[in-house]
Amino acid sequence: MEPNTPVEVNVLNRDKPAIGIVATDDNHDAIARIALRANRRGYSLLVTYAGDSEPDSIEIAREAAAIVVPAPGTDSVDDVGEDQLSKTARDLGFPGVVIHRRHDEYVDYDAVKQSERTSNGEFYTVDAFSRSAGRQNCNVLVGIPAYNEGDRISDVVTETRKYADMTVVVDDGSADDTAEISRRAGAVVIEHEQNRGYGAALQTLFKEAKQRDAGHLVILDGDGQHDPADIPKLVERQRATGAELVVGDRFGEGANSDVPLYRRLGLTTINVLTNLSMGVVRSDAWIRDTQNGFRAYDKQAIRTLAETNSLGEQMSASTDILHHAHNRKYDIEEVGTTVRYDIENASTHNPIKHGTILVSNILRTVERERPLLVLGFPGFASAFVGLGLGYWTVSTYLLTNDFPLELATVASFTTLGGLLACFTAIILHSLKAHYP
């Protein structure tokens, strides 16, 4: 047998994720306990170890019907990553693998089942949902969407953990070692097998926060542009006001953000369009920084956002969340925060492309939410103008006995286009009223 070939003793159920664990010389009892609980619930156990020689606990793992996964070339437990366990689980046909590192705690199998239900059919690698006795209490959960942030994520996680009961990183299909570095820094990591987009990472965080019954979910970027020291400011404002959503503000009182001029102009345009799309006309009632991803959500917002299917999977999700909150009449507060733009190779998008996507999404949202405003009134105006041009056409023909073909063509298209827009607006409005 090859030295790095998994030894399959008894695979219980490939319909469930495998439980992965690292064996050492002193965790015999833990492996026996974890294997027993896993087997009783129909979960298979994958066990790996560091170095070329097997620790004594491997024999116990085999007796417990575990699948042994050698990790050649590793010298210590710290060197044993999740890649080998994940690869083996995928090769053996498991839908995912749950990594159990805290051997003195228990896997919350109810939470594992929830992870199965929210995986969308993709292979997944997650940390064990550990609990010592009962469900783990999490008041402030900080979520970090991350994509290829291996150079910066360790510092972000380390600083974030000072202000959070739990830090969760969603690795959105990174090609680098973002997930492994995040784990070493102390974060709970959820991995997307493929890059699904910023909005999809947010949806995963909302579901995770709901599952853990978090009192507050604070989301910040993984590239270091947001200052984790601002986390208490958002949470305290939420507690003081009872607002379902608190948004970081780069432009308001208490902000410390040197926003470049070109970006400030673009954000101003997007902010105006976003507020108008929500029907907020008075400027003093506007959200000043609609595209700031540094936000805090309370339990109510977490629950509804975890259950909704109205969020896009890309960067437009920030705007979709505001529409979600506005439609449910949530209170929205803003707090001045720090955003750094001097970070080398920060994960920023092309501002023109990003702005175009956001504007397109806003227009589609307005068309869907307010069809009478976007299509009905312009359509009526177009039809009215078309009728006027038609009257002019007929008058000209009667007076000159010369039929103005160009004017008649314009009148016809203007009238028909306006009527089509009006009928479309009425249909969309009816659909929205009956199927909100």
Brief summary:
With 436 residues, this protein is of the alpha/beta class. It is built from 14 helices and 14 strands.
List the SSEs and their pairings:
Layout: E1 18-23, H1 28-40, E2 45-50, H2 57-63, E3 67-71, H3 83-91, E4 96-99, E5 106-107, H4 109-117, E6 124-127, E7 130-131, E8 140-146, H5 153-160, E9 166-172, H6 178-184, E10 188-192, H7 198-211, E11 216-219, H8 231-241, E12 245-249, H9 261-277, E13 295-298, H10 299-307, H11 317-327, E14 332-336, H12 351-369, H13 371-400, H14 405-434
Radius of gyration: 28 Å
- Give me the number of helical elements: 14
User: Looking at this structure, what is the CATH superfamily of the largest domain?
Assistant: Spore Coat Polysaccharide Biosynthesis Protein SpsA, Chain A
CATH topology of the largest domain: Spore Coat Polysaccharide Biosynthesis Protein SpsA, Chain A
Low-confidence stretches: 1-10
Report helical residue fraction.
40-55%
What's the architecture of the largest domain in CATH terms?
Alpha-Beta Complex
Beta-strand content estimate = 15-25%
**How many structural domains in the coordinates?**
3
Question: What can you tell me about this protein's structure?
Answer:
This protein has 436 residues and is of the alpha/beta class. The chain has 3 domains: 1-136, Rossmann fold, CATH 3.40.50; 137-369, Spore Coat Polysaccharide Biosynthesis Protein SpsA, Chain A (Alpha-Beta Complex), CATH 3.90.550; 370-434. The protein contains 14 helices and 14 strands. The chain has helices at 28-40, 57-63, 83-91, 109-117, 153-160, 178-184, 198-211, 231-241, 261-277, 299-307, 317-327, 351-369, 371-400, 405-434, and strands at residues 18-23, 45-50, 67-71, 96-99, 106-107, 124-127, 130-131, 140-146, 166-172, 188-192, 216-219, 245-249, 295-298, 332-336. The strands form 3 sheets. It has a 7-stranded mixed β-sheet, with helices on both faces. Helix 7 (198-211) packs across helix 10.
